[in-house]
Specification:
InterPro entries: LpxI, LpxI_C, LpxI_C_sf, LpxI_N. By secondary structure, the protein is of the alpha/beta class. Helix content is 36%, strand content 20%. Strands 6-13-11-9-7-8 form a 6-stranded mixed beta sheet, sandwiched between helices. Strands 3-2-1-4-5 form a 5-stranded parallel beta sheet, sandwiched between helices.
Amino acid sequence: MSAATLGILAGGGELPLRVARAARAAGRPVFAVVLAGWGEPGQWAGLPHTVERPGAAGRILARLRAERVRQLVLAGRARRPSVAALRPDAVGMRIVARIGTGFLLGDDGLLRAVARVLEEEGFEVVSPQSVLTGLLPPSGLLAGAPPDDATRADIRRGVAVCRALGAADVGQAAVVQQGLVLGVEAIEGTDALLARCGELRREGGGRGVLVKLAKPGQDRRLDLPAVGPDTVRHAAAVGLAGIAFGAGSTVLLDRERTVAAAESAGLFLLALEPRETDGEENSR
């Protein structure tokens, strides 16, 4: 019996493509629904896919069933839309009603509600890392020189801020310099956060750091924080010293390119141990 087709609801960026290629390399058939306005259809040439607007739920579900998809990965960048902007079709309107107050929650709460509805529709929602190994690096310094004491203090401050943000299901990242929080991530995403913080950096002292953490209790199948070559490029452009993130809970996109970009830019990449991100060190 041939392997069941893996479905991918694909937003933007490299992750959904990497999942698709890894599955195919393992001999598994793949079918992607590239979400118009979010995903990048031109990058899917040569891979089985269709392009649908996010609100066309009826067409999306029908096509996934026609392709005999059972397991489904949600991956890639997406901008959170309003219900009006989605322009849901008749099936989409029923799904919106089933999600209900999920639309009033943060991203993790909404994605959990979406995953629940997809599972009620007969699909098993699985994580990208269940298909693509090596996405979640263990703890340690991956690139650059170890952060100095001042930068370590900024990292601890960033961890505390990210934990507070995550507990409120708001965002996954913060930029800290000289103990000052220059910005926190909300709906705009990390790249926009970094661009905004570049104008706020202080003269002298530590260069500042980007901290990215999964939210406490976050569904690990959905929207884990990610660091990739673009993150490094934006962090370098605003003069930060490096990027710290949770080991085992942050997706490292294209590790070789990301590490090389950090080394070239003189940035550190530091995967923090769980004891450094769960509040233990901050309570000492």
